[in-house]
Write a structure and sequence with these properties.
Blueprint lengths: L1 E5 L8 E5 L9 E10 L2 H8 L17 E9 L11 E5 L11 E5 L4 E2 L13 H14 L7 E5 L4 H12 L3 E6 L4 H6 L4 E4 L6 H4 L10 E6 L5 H6 L4 E9 L15 E4 L6 H13 L8 E4 L3 H10 L6 E4 L1
Parallel strand pairs: 8-9, 8-11, 9-10, 11-12, 12-13, 14-15
Antiparallel strand pairs: 1-2, 3-4, 3-6, 3-15, 4-5, 5-7
The structure holds NADP nicotinamide-adenine-dinucleotide phosphate.
């Protein structure tokens, strides 16, 4: 089968489009004929070798932690799934990924693909959708009537976080760059705080939260510096929560005021993913895809991401 692999860590030029053996599902696993995977920031970090501690992969490695596709074969002891089922999943990050014609996945992580959108576009959902869900509901225990500030809301996780928080009945304040303010508004944010101009990271650090009335929850999705992250504690009411996804800097806490900082590490959860695909099918959750790119061009997607020029959530069509 065709796959993209890297044989050594490095810049996007280490990614090769090549022929590899088709994997065989083991006990409890299924073989998926891949419709699409999607690009996530962590893919670039794994390829660059920055994640060898927390996410050790064997080389050569096939990237792509999201998958949408059709079950092509079942391993032993798989129940509840059948050949031909259309599924989505957030794959184990240490195994081979879905930038390939076929991938093997544990049966227990898969959810039915949404039926109301293209199977290809469904690859945009698993990792970032689960991240948004787990930030808001597993970690922050967000409930209706609470106030939540989503910092970096114009990105992929942010789009889902705004929609999900709004559906839960929360008051949603989003911070974005000028480039993505409309995206956060369309996702349903009650307030959008944005830079006046499309600007570089330095100016974006200047987003000012001091005028924001206290919130119960802050979800940080932006690669801001640790001092700015700590400053976000000031807008959280006593007893509130800061959930941080940019885990290379630990989430700060404010113990005297009972404000807890939580580092989020997304985990696969088939039940939560099935809930999210159900929301997509009921029209309660919109999947946004900025571009669809053929598998052979995955290296250029990694290069765009490294250059900071990705236009938004990118699905890789196999
Ligand atoms: N820990 C985990 O398990 C986990 C899981 C998933 C994701 N993540 C991390 O969570 C973050 C969000 O993921 P994503 O897929 O949504 O990424 P994304 O689509 O690239 O979104 C990142 C967001 O950060 C904003 N941003 C970038 N630089 C900024 C700055 N200097 N100041 C303010 N905002 C800035 C971007 O704004 P604009 O788009 O408006 O320019 C964008 O909204 C990423 O860092 C990702 O690596 C972690």
């Amino acid at each position: 089968m065709k796959a993209i692999r890297f044989h050594e860590y490095g810049d996007p030029t280490v990614l090769r489009h090549e022929d590899v053996d088709q994997p065989v599902p083991g006990t409890g696993q299924v073989l998926i004929r891949v419709a699409a995977t999607s690009f996530n920031g962590v893919d670039g970090n794994i390829r660059a070798g920055f994640m060898q501690g927390p996410i050790p992969v064997a080389l050569p490695h096939i990237p792509g932690i999201d998958v949408s596709g059709t079950i092509a074969a079942l391993g032993d002891e798989v129940t509840g799934l059948a050949v031909g089922d259309r599924v989505v999943g957030f794959l184990p990050m240490t195994g081979d990924g879905a930038a390939a014609e076929y991938v093997v996945a544990p049966a227990g992580i898969l959810a039915p693909a949404p039926t109301g959108i293209d199977l290809v576009d469904a690859a945009a959902l698993p990792t970032v959708g689960l991240t948004a869900w787990q930030a808001l509901f597993d970690h922050a225990k967000l409930t209706g009537g609470q106030r939540v500030l989503i910092n970096g809301a114009g990105g992929a996780v942010g789009g889902y976080a705004v929609q999900l928080a709004k559906s839960a009945g929360a008051h949603v304040i989003a911070t974005t760059s000028a480039r993505t303010a409309d995206r956060a508004k369309a996702a349903g944010a009650d307030e959008v705080i944005t830079d006046a101009q499309e600007s570089d990271a330095k100016e974006r650090e200047a987003i000012d939260h001091t005028g924001v009335d206290p919130v119960d929850v802050v979800v940080n999705l932006a690669p801001i510096d640790p001092a700015r992250l700590a400053a976000l504690l000031d807008v959280i009411r006593p007893g509130g929560v800061l959930v941080n996804t940019t885990v290379w800097m630990p989430a700060p806490s404010d113990e005297p005021r009972g404000v807890r900082g939580i580092d989020l590490f997304v985990r696969s959860d088939a039940g939560q993913l099935a809930h999210l695909t159900g929301l997509v099918d009921s029209g309660a959750l919109r999947v946004e895809v900025a571009q669809r790119v053929p598998l052979a061009e995955l290296p250029s997607v990694h290069a765009q991401a490294a250059a900071g020029t990705l236009p938004g959530k990118t699905v890789i069509v196999v």
